[in-house]
Amino acid sequence: MSDTASVSVIDDDESVRVALDGLLRSHGYRVKTYPSALDFLSSAGFEKTACLLSDIQMPGMTGIQLCDELCARGIEIPLIFITGLPAVPPLARPGFCGPVAVFPKPFDCGELMACIESVMRGLV
């Protein structure tokens, strides 16, 4: 892990942001949290983000719209979706820079951390 790179978490549910912040910090990661995709995009946070965890369904800009926007801007950040949706919408479509993984809530923390560690090591 780079000493300046961080994992960014975007979720409109504060309890999820707090829980993921604690989990990631307990594994030694720098963490930035955002209550919305627009807050993330308007910050300088994406410049130092090595891995992005985003909810799919959020007010304003959804996680899928965020992914499309990052792709349109040429910003390549490994993205992991976390979602409470009962059925994940189709994510593979032309011009879409898809996620590395999708984890339904509630997710297994060990599996999520293994995925993040693979991303941070450049294995994904």
TrEMBL record:
It comes from Pseudomonas agronomica. It comes from the Bacteria. Keywords: Phosphoprotein. InterPro entries: Bact_response_regulator, CheY-like_superfamily, Sig_transdc_resp-reg_receiver. This is Response regulator. Pfam families: Response_reg. Residues 6-120 form the Response regulatory domain. The modification 4-aspartylphosphate is found at residue 55.
